[in-house]
Amino acid sequence: MMDRPQYFTPAEVAAHNTADDLWVSFLGKVCDLTPLMTQFKGDVLLLPIMECAGKDISHWFDPKTKDVLKHVDPLTNCVRYFTPRGRFLHVPPAGPRSDWANNIGQPWWTDRQYEVGRLTAKARWIRVVNTLTSQEQRLQVCSEETLAEILQRYLRYNSHARSYTWKYNGSSLSMSRTLDENDVPDDDQRLEQLRLDRDLFIPALLLHFNDDLTEE
User: Fold this and answer.
1) Pairing of the two strands 115-119 and 7-8
2) Where are the alpha helices (DSSP H) in the chain?
3) pLDDT tens, 126-183?
4) SS3 state at 82
5) Average pLDDT rounded to a whole number, residues 196-201
6) How does DSSP assign 141-175, residue by residue?
């Protein structure tokens, strides 16, 4: 069985928005391009990438071929890569150039070494309420994540989170299932249609304390 990918919200990708820590997402993938920025530091072809640091750049690519978009150059009538923001690293020039090396190897957008995970198809908010202390924490999570993976996000706020039973509407939640699979509804679309404030209807997961022994 393959390891599950780690999922990220757009907000998490957006936090990596500098040349020294640069992530982008595209076609559902999240990539850490920081090593690329270091390797080619000072190269003008990094500028379009730097301008989109922390953002989704799926519109640069053809979802079918997974390659950079192409078009017919009106000047040459040749098929070229379509880069309206300017040519970027590993995209060949429109014509012959003495400073262009054809042996670039694998272009960064197909190189899996930069992949750190997947972009969630839907980020959603939940409230985690500790019934022992009455403390409440809002978390933005990925719809694909299991409750066990959501628990990992919550550990920074409560290091003993494993010592609690997680419940919703009085029913214990399966930690190996997602929120949807646990019948925790995502009403964002319906609330938007009704023009209701989604922040007032964030589902609350209740944590009930079991014991004081946290498993290592």
Assistant:
1) parallel
2) 10-14, 34-39, 47-51, 147-154, 188-193
3) 999 999 999 999 999 999 999 999 999 999 999 999 999 999 999 999 999 999 999 9
4) coil
5) 76
6) EETT-BHHHHHHHHTTT-TTGGGEEEEETTEEPPT
Q: Distance between CA atoms of 206 and 179, rounded to whole angstroms? A: 13
188 in Cβ contact with 198 (< 8 Å): yes
Q: Is 108 left (phi over 0), alpha (psi -120 to 50) or beta?
A: alpha
Nearest to 25 by CA among 63, 6, 52: 52
Decide: pTM greater than 0.85. yes
For 86-158, list the strands marked E by DSSP.
Answer: 115-119, 123-130, 136-142
* 118 has pLDDT over 90: yes
Nearest to 56 by CA among 117, 112, 119, 123: 119
Pairing of strands 123-130, 70-72: unpaired
For 27-38, write each residue's pLDDT tens digit.
Answer: 999 999 999 999
- Three-state secondary-structure class, residue 37: helix
**Exposed e or buried b for every residue in 180-216, given b needs 16+ CB within 10 A?**
eebebeeeeeeeeeeeeeeeeeeeebbbeeeeeeeee
* pLDDT of 96: 63
User: Dihedral through CA 115, CA 188, CA 167, CA 159, nearest 10?
Assistant: 40
Give the C-alpha separation, 195 to 198, whole Å.
9
Query: What is the C-alpha to C-alpha distance for residues 63 and 26, in angstroms, rounded to an integer?
Result: 9
